[in-house]
Amino acid sequence: MESENPKKLQKIVGEVIACNTPKTIQVKASIFKVHSKYKKRYLVTKKYVAHDEKGQCKVGDKVEIVASKSYSRTKHFIVSKVI
After folding, report:
1. Cβ–Cβ under 8 Å, residues 78 and 51
2. Can you give the pLDDT at residue 37?
3. 10 and 78 in contact (C-beta within 8 Å)?
4. What residue intervals traverse the membrane (predicted)?
5. Domain presence at residue 3
6. Is the pLDDT reported for residue 61 higher than 90?
7. Is 50 helix (H, G, I), strand (E, B) or coil?
8. Taking the model in full, what pTM does it have?
9. Domains held by the chain: number
10. Which residue range is the domain that position 45 belongs to?
11. 3-state secondary structure (DSSP) of residue 58
12. Residue 22: CB atoms within 10 Å
């Protein structure tokens, strides 16, 4: 049976912090979370490794990455667009 809703892909917007190796970038994504008991907001930062097929990203660019097949042990995202 086919499902009515297409599968949602995980999209993350972040800033490129490194592009040392060819076709690979590191993206820093930050989000605010709220503590369940104390209701204080705090910043959570995470680094992702993404595949950049065209090699168009530079350090400091804002990019949107999308979950995809594994390209290596740590690379599970692909660059969808440069913002």
Report:
1. yes
2. 98
3. no
4. none
5. no
6. yes
7. strand
8. 0.84
9. 1
10. 11-82
11. coil
12. 7
Task: Summarize pLDDT for 2-56 with one digit per residue, the tens.
Answer: 556 667 789 999 999 999 999 999 999 999 999 999 999 999 999 999 999 999 9
Domain of residue 69, CATH code: 2.40.50.140
For 75, residues 6+ apart whose C-beta sits below 8 A from its C-beta are 24, 49, 50, 51
pLDDT of 2 reads 56
Q: Which residues pair with 46 in a beta bridge?
A: 29
Rounded Cα distance, 31 and 23, in Å: 26
Tell me if 1 is assigned to some domain: no
Closest-CA residue to 62 (of 39, 28, 33, 37): 28
User: What is d(CA 33, CA 24) in angstroms, rounded to the nearest whole number?
Assistant: 28
